[in-house]
Amino acid sequence: MEKIDKKLTKDVANLANIPISDQEAENLANAFSETLEVIDQLQSLDVGETEPSHQVTGLTNIWREDKVIEEQMFTQEQALANAPRKHNGYFVVDRIISKQE
User: Fold this and answer.
1) What residues have CB less than 8 Å from 76, skipping those under 6 apart?
2) What are the pLDDT digits (tens) for 53-93?
3) Which of 5, 61, 65, 79 is the right S-S partner for 74, CB 3.0 to 4.6 Å?
4) 90, β-bridge pairs
5) Residue 13 in contact with residue 19, Cβ under 8 Å?
6) Element (DSSP H or E) covering residue 26
7) Beta carbons within 10 angstroms of residue 30's beta carbon
8) Over pLDDT 70: what percentage of the chain?
9) Rounded-to-integer distance, Cα 3 and Cα 14, Å
10) Rounded CA gap, 88 and 70, in Å?
11) Can you tell me the distance from the alpha carbon of 27 to that of 9, in angstroms, rounded to the nearest whole number?
């Protein structure tokens, strides 16, 4: 396994546009390297006789029938009742996306 160094950490932070100091880069490089070492140790384990498991608590999901409960639905008028601005049955909101690049 290749060791993660400060330069690689700073390069990745730069690509992600995350400013980090030299000390932070050094700390992160050490932490990344330690994490990769643990992963290498886990990959060396023999799990050939281990049963696959997606959870170990014994709990199961409880699903409900996917149906519309009309008593809990708003009418369109109720949904728009407190809207500060509306037009033809729709909410009106200010534009938040600009065309700047």
Assistant:
1) 89
2) 877 788 888 888 899 999 999 999 999 999 999 999 999 99
3) 79
4) 87
5) yes
6) helix 22-43
7) 15
8) 96
9) 19
10) 23
11) 10
d(CA 3, CA 26): 12
Burial class (CB in 10 A: 0-12, 13-18, 19+), 10: buried
The structure tokens listed for 21 are 């100091």
Cβ pair 23, 43 in contact under 8 A: no
- Is-contact 29 23, C-beta < 8 A? no
CA dihedral 37, 38, 40, 44 (to 10 degrees): 140
Location of structure tokens 């490089």: 29
